[in-house]
Model the fold of this input.
Amino acid sequence: MFSEITGYYFFSSIIQVEAAIFSIYGLFIVFKIQICKANIDTCKNLLFMKFNKLHMISDFEKKNDSQKEEYITEKAKSAPDEPIAYQFRQWLDNQYSIAKIKSSFRSPLVLLITGMITDAVALIFMQTIQRLFILESILYAISLGIFIVAIIQIYRSITKIILE
Done:
């Protein structure tokens, strides 16, 4: 039913599209993390330049998240008019954003890699696969299924990252 070259075109095209999406999505993630890190550096610089409190910055970096939350609450109560607590809050919020970004991008990338591996294996064994029509049809369906699920996961991940 399918032409002899259909499988070669199909699987090589899908691999190329998956690789392109992988690259673009990876760039998005890297730039988003860099923006958060730049915001953290801006908070550190403001704290140092305005308040000259290098020891506060180094102490804050050493704390775990719950200790940082307590520290920010304490600073907000003790000096409500000073923006120290606000800068620390911005710093911590950006750290949370980086953690969320790192956790949300794994699933789509694993799906894309799985799709690329599946398509590469299908390309390698195309002559054997073409002898069995049902196997060829199943591989087309699996490849498209993985691709569609990966695209949906990427869309959800990007939407989640942008809305934060």
